[in-house]
Design goal:
The structure is a homodimer.
Chain A (H helix, E strand, L loop, with lengths): L7 H6 L20 H10 L2 H6 L1 H14 L5 E2 L6 H8 L1 E4 L3 E4 L6 H6 L10 H14 L5 E6 L1 H10 L7 H9 L1 H25 L3 E6 L7 H17 L4 E2 L2 E2 L2 E5 L6 H6 L4 E3 L6 H8 L4 E6 L8 H15 L5 E5 L9 H15 L14
Parallel strand pairs in A: 1-4, 4-5, 5-8, 8-9, 9-10, 10-11
Antiparallel strand pairs in A: 2-3, 6-7
C-alpha cells in the first residue's frame, strides 16, 4: 500500500492534531464542474455514469485537479443498494430518483435479497479500487452509503414525496413491518460499507438524508438505532489505521447529543447550527464536519472568505473540525467560488491549530 | 361585541390557567374534508375560494361543525400580500404557488406598492368580519400572515425552489437590496395584520415557512428581526383583551431562545423537538404550540391517543400549551382520525391543569 501523503482528514476525524483544518465538499464531483457535465453527457444517464468504474473514477478525481482538497469521495449514489435489491432505480429529469418496483407489502419486504457487494454491486467496488490506485496516496478516499432509514424512505415512497405518507403510514400503522425492512437494510448497508473498506475506502460516511423528518422518539427508534447497528458491524481498521465513520442527518441538529452517544467518530452539521454551540454540546466525544451554507458560494469571494473566517472562529481552537458545506454544493455555483472557499480554509485555519498559549485571543 | 364563550386558546397563549389544553390544527379547514373539496370545486381555483368572503367563511367554519375545536383560523393564503402588490399569484396543480411577475431587480423592489388592507385586500377583511359574525363568540378567530422573509422568498424565487438560489444569491450577494424588500414587506404585513384585528381577529399567527433554510446569523438578520419589527407595529388589544401573537418557523427549533426573546406570546414547535426540552429552554417567557407529527394521523386511533398522551406528558403540568400538529394536516388523513385526535386532547389534558399538589406524580 502506498503511504498516505495527506492524512489531515483522517486525523481530524479522530480529533488528532493537524496543521490546518482539512476541507472536502459534499458533491465536490458534480454538475457545477464543466468537465463533469462533459463526462456525464458521454455516459448517458446518471446511473450509467455510476456503473462505469472508469468514468466514476474520472469524475471522482476531477475536483482534485482543480482544488487543493484534503479528500476524495467515491462518486456513486446512495440508492445503489435498493437498486441491487431489484427495485429498478431510475431518474426523471429534475424529479429525483424513482423506483419501478417500490416496496409496499410484507411480501415485498420478505422477497428482498441482501445483495453481495462483490456481485451486483461489484461496479462500486471496482470504482473504489481504481480510485485508490489513481489517487496514489495523495489524499484519503471516503466511501459512503445511505442510512437504513433513508433507504427505506426512498424504497417505500418510490418517488418524490412531500408528506412521506407511505413510509410514515408504515411507521405509525405497521411498525413491525418497518422494523423488518430496516433490519434487512442494516445488514445490507454494513456489508456494502465493509466491502468498500476492503476495496480501499479509508473513511466512511453514512448519509441520513431523511432522518430530519421524524419526531425525536421515531428518529431514535427508526433511524439512529439502525445506523448504530450498521456501525457496530463495520470493519474499523484498514492499512493499519482506524477507519473513521461520519454520520450526517440533514436537519438533525436537535439530536447531536444522541448521535454523539451512538459512537460515530464525526457528525455532519448543517448550516442552521453554529459550530460553537454544536461543539459545546458534544464536547470531545466526536469530531464535527461542516457547516457553511452552500448558498454562500453565490456570494462574491470576499463574502465567502468572511463566512469561512466566521465558521472557523465559531469552531475555535484545536482539533476535530473537518471543513465542509452543510449540504451538497449547488449545480449553479461558479467553480472560481469553490476555489475561493478552499483557499480561504487553507489560509485562515492554521492559527487555530497552533499550540494554545495562555492568554491567546484565538479561542 | 358578543361575549367569547370559549377563551381557552386566548388564555393558553398568554400562559393563563385553563381547564384543559386547547386544540386547533393547522389547515383544519382543508382538503382532508369532503365538504371542503366540494366548496373548492364550486369556487373553481384556490384563489377564487380565498377571494370569496362567503365561501372562505363557509370553509373556515366546516371543521368546527365536525370537531370540538377551540379556535377557528381564517381561511386564506400567506401570499395574498404579494398578490395585492401586483405579482400575479397563481397555482399550478401539485406544484405550489407561482408568481407571474417575480421580483428580480432594485427597480422591481422600488416599484412595489404597500397594499391598503381595505383596498385590494378587502376580500380578506370581509371574510374576517363575516366569520366573526357567524362564529357568534363560540371560539376565537385567529388571523395570520406570512413573515416578511417567507414572503420575500416566494416573491424572489417566483415558484418552487430546491436550493433557494435566487433569494440566497441576493442575501449573500446584494444584502442591501434584500433589506429594502424586507423593510417594505414588514410595513405591509403589520398593516395587514392590524386590519385583521380591526375586522375581528382575536389572535394572530405569523408563518415563517422558510426561516429554517437560513444559517443562524442570517435567520436573525433577515427573518427574525423583521418578524420582530412587524410585532412592534401591531395593535395588541381588541374588545378589551390582549391579542396574542404566535410565531412559527418550520425547522427553527434550534432558535427557540432567540425567538422567545423577540417578544412573541407563543412559539409554534414542529415535531422534531420534544415539548419537554422546548419548555425547559424557553421557561415561562412564552407559550408553546404543537407538536404532533401530522403523519401520526395515518396511524389507528389507539396510536393517535398514545402519541397525544406522550405529547401532553412531555409538556407537563401547568399553563402555556396550545395543542396542534407540528405542521398542517395532510390531505390524505381520514376525518375520523382528526376526531380521535381532538377527543384525546380533550379527555387526556384536564389532569395537567388541576392545581399541583406536593408529591403529585403528574409533573
Amino acid at each position: 500500500m502506498t503511504t498516505l501523503k495527506n492524512d489531515r482528514l483522517l486525523r481530524a476525524l479522530l480529533r488528532q492534531p493537524v496543521d490546518r483544518t482539512p476541507i472536502w465538499v459534499m458533491r465536490q464531483a458534480g454538475r457545477y464542474l464543466p468537465e463533469y457535465r462533459e463526462v456525464r453527457q458521454q455516459a448517458g444517464d446518471f446511473m450509467s455514469l455510476c456503473r462505469n468504474p472508469e468514468l466514476a473514477c474520472e469524475v471522482t478525481l476531477q475536483p482534485l485537479r482543480r482544488f487543493p482538497l484534503d479528500a476524495a469521495i467515491l462518486f456513486s449514489d446512495i440508492l445503489t443498494i435498493p437498486d441491487a435489491m431489484g427495485l429498478g432505480l431510475y431518474f426523471e429529469t429534475g424529479e429525483g430518483p424513482r423506483f419501478e418496483r417500490p416496496v409496499r407489502s410484507a411480501a415485498d419486504i420478505d422477497a428482498l435479497p441482501i445483495p453481495d457487494p462483490e456481485g451486483k454491486l461489484r461496479y462500486v467496488m471496482d470504482a473504489v479500487r481504481l480510485i485508490r490506485r489513481e489517487l496514489d496516496g495523495r489524499v484519503p478516499l471516503i466511501g459512503f452509503a445511505g442510512s437504513p432509514w433513508t433507504l427505506a424512505t426512498y424504497m417505500v415512497e418510490g418517488g418524490p414525496s412531500k408528506n412521506f405518507s407511505r413510509i410514515k403510514g408504515l411507521l405509525y400503522g405497521q411498525p413491525k413491518l418497518l422494523h423488518q425492512l430496516l433490519d434487512k437494510l442494516s445488514q445490507a448497508v454494513a456489508n456494502y460499507l465493509n466491502a468498500q473498506v476492503a476495496a480501499g475506502a479509508q473513511a466512511l460516511m453514512i448519509f441520513d438524508s431523511w432522518g430530519g423528518v421524524l419526531s425525536t422518539p421515531a428518529f431514535q427508534e427508526f433511524s439512529l438505532d439502525y445506523a448504530a447497528r450498521v456501525l457496530a458491524n463495520l470493519q474499523r481498521e484498514a492499512d493499519g489505521r482506524r477507519v473513521p465513520v461520519i454520520f450526517f442527518t440533514k436537519g438533525g441538529g436537535q439530536w447531536l447529543e444522541r448521535m454523539a452517544a451512538a459512537g460515530f467518530d464525526c457528525l455532519g452539521i448543517d448550516w442552521t447550527l453554529e459550530m460553537k454551540d454544536a461543539r459545546a454540546r458534544v464536547g470531545d466525544r466526536v469530531a464535527l464536519q461542516g457547516n457553511l451554507d452552500p448558498a454562500t458560494l453565490y456570494g462574491p469571494p470576499d463574502v465567502i472568505r468572511a463566512e469561512v473566517a466566521r465558521t472557523l472562529a465559531s469552531y475555535g481552537h484545536g482539533p476535530g473540525h473537518v471543513f465542509n458545506l452543510g449540504h451538497g454544493i449547488h449545480p449553479q455555483v461558479d467553480p472560481a467560488h469553490m476555489l475561493a472557499l478552499v483557499e480561504a480554509v487553507h489560509e485562515l485555519s492554521a492559527p487555530y491549530h497552533r499550540p494554545e498559549r495562555p492568554g491567546s485571543a484565538l479561542d
